[in-house]
Amino acid sequence: MIDTQELTIATALDRLADGAFSARELAESYLVTAKEKNTNVNAYLEYYDDALHMADAVAERIKAGETLPLAGIPLAIKDNILILGKRASAGSKILESYTATYDATVIRRLREAGAVFLGRANMDEFAMGSSTETSAYGITKNPLDTTRVPGGSSGGSAAAVAMGGALAALGSDTGGSIRQPAAFVGLVGLKPTYGAVSRSGLMALASSLDQIGPITKTVADAEIFFRVISGSDPKDGTTAQESDTLSRKPMNGAKRLGVPEHLLEERGIDDDVRDNFRAMASLLQKDGFTLVPIELPHIAYSLPTYYIIMPAEASSNLARYDGIRYGLSIGGETLLDTYVNTRTDGFGAEVRRRVLFGTSVLSTGYYDAYYKKATDVRALIRDDFAIAFENVDAIITPTTPTPAFKIGEKARDPLAMYYSDVLTVPANLSGIPALSVPSGTVMRDGSALPVGFQIMAPHFREDILFTVGRAVERLARTGEHYV
C-alpha cells in the first residue's frame, strides 16, 4: 500500500522511475484516501472520472521515452481554474453547471509535464474569503483539527494535500489565499511574482492582484511545480518576458534577511506566533544569515488599501455574471429584474458585500476619494519594498497573525476575518513573490497547530525564496544549528 502522507513530489518521481509503483497505482492510492477522508473534510467537490486514464497515458509517454518533470504526480485543482470539459464553479451557485471550454495555460503546462488531475477542490466563493466557509457547496474543514478552518480561499486545495488526498495542489492567491491555508495545515505555499505565471483560464477576482501558485509538502516540491507552470504566455499580456523570469536568474544564496520589527508589534498577532517567528529568525541567524532591522513606513496601510482595490476590481470582473451570457439565469418581467434575481440568488453574502462596496468606491464622487487614493498608497508600499531590497536579500515575517481558528469564529465579523490577511496582502499589492514554510506549532485547546514563516523577495527572485525556505524547513525539522 502506498503511503500517501509520506510521499513528496521528488520521492514519488524517484519511485515511479524505479518501478516501485505505476502512475495508475499512485493515482488510485490518492483517490482512495481522498474518498475515505473527504466525507468529513469536504476538500473535493468532484473527482475526475478520467484521472486513471490520464495516469495510464502518462505511463505510455514514459515508455515512449519522454522525460516528464511531473510524470504521474496526482494533483487537486482549485475550482476557479479551467480544465477543458470539466465543471468550474468558483465555489458559487451562479456557476453551478458551468463547464470550461478550454484549458487554463497552467493546466496545459501541467498536462505537458505529465501531471494527473484528481479532482476539483472546494474554495471560498469567487475566492472571497479566508476560511473556505463562504463556498456555496459547504464548509471545508482542517484535516488536522476538524473543528477549525483550513484557511482560504484555497482551503480545499490545502486540505486535499494535508489529508493525503493529493500529492500537491494548484491554488490562487489574491491577498494570501495560497500562503494562509498552507500555513494553517502545515504545508508550503508559494505566491509567485505577479506576471511569472499566466492567469489565462483563472476566473478573475482582482486582476492586478491574482496569481496562481502551488501548495506542496516541501520547498523542493514547490520549486519543481513552479518551474513547470511559470513563463511567458501570449494569452496573458501581464506575464513577463522570458528574459525576466527565474529560468535566467543565477541560483545564488541569500544571506541578509530584513525584519520589520514595527510590523511584528501589530495588535492582533498572537504572542506565541510572534515567539515562534523570532525563534526561527534566531535559528537562521545562528545558521549564518544576517538579520537586518528594516522599516516599511506605509505597510500599515496595506489592509485598508487592499480592501478598496480588491472589491473595486471584483465588482468589475463579476459584472459578467448577469444571467444572460452563461451560468445561472432567473428571469423576471424586465431585463433589470433578471439581473437582480440572478445575482441575488446566485451570489452569496460575502460576494454581494464586496461587489456592493467595490461598486461604491468606483462611483462618481467616491472614485478619487477612495480608489485613486488607494492606488497612490499602493505605489508607496511598492516603493517601500524596493528601497528595503536595496539592503536585504529577503524580508521575513510570520505568515498569519494566528493559527487556524475555529469554524464560525469569525464568520459573523468580516473585519476580524479580513485581518487574517494583514501579513500576506503586502506581497500582492507589491507584486513580489512570497513563500510560506511551516515553522513549528503552537498550542490551542490541547491541539498543536502549525504556523507559517513567510519569506518575501524582489520581483522574479523566487530562487531566493527557495534558498531561504530550504533553510527554514531544515531548521524547523531539527531545531539545531548547521554549519
TrEMBL record:
Domain Amidase residues, every copy: 25-464
Keyword Phosphoprotein (UniProt): no
Record bears the keyword Cell division: no
Active site: 78, 153, 177
Reaction(s) catalysed by this chain's protein: L-glutamyl-tRNA(Gln) + L-glutamine + ATP + H2O = L-glutaminyl-tRNA(Gln) + L-glutamate + ADP + phosphate + H(+)
Any GO CC annotation of this UniProt entry: glutamyl-tRNA(Gln) amidotransferase complex
Keyword tags: ATP-binding, Ligase, Nucleotide-binding, Protein biosynthesis, Transferase
Enzyme Commission no: 6.3.5.7
PANTHER family xrefs: GLUTAMYL-TRNA(GLN) AMIDOTRANSFERASE SUBUNIT A, TRANSAMIDASE
Subunit-level organization: Heterotrimer of A, B and C subunits.
Function in brief: Allows the formation of correctly charged Gln-tRNA(Gln) through the transamidation of misacylated Glu-tRNA(Gln) in organisms which lack glutaminyl-tRNA synthetase. The reaction takes place in the presence of glutamine and ATP through an activated gamma-phospho-Glu-tRNA(Gln).
Family: Belongs to the amidase family. GatA subfamily.
Name of this protein: Glutamyl-tRNA(Gln) amidotransferase subunit A
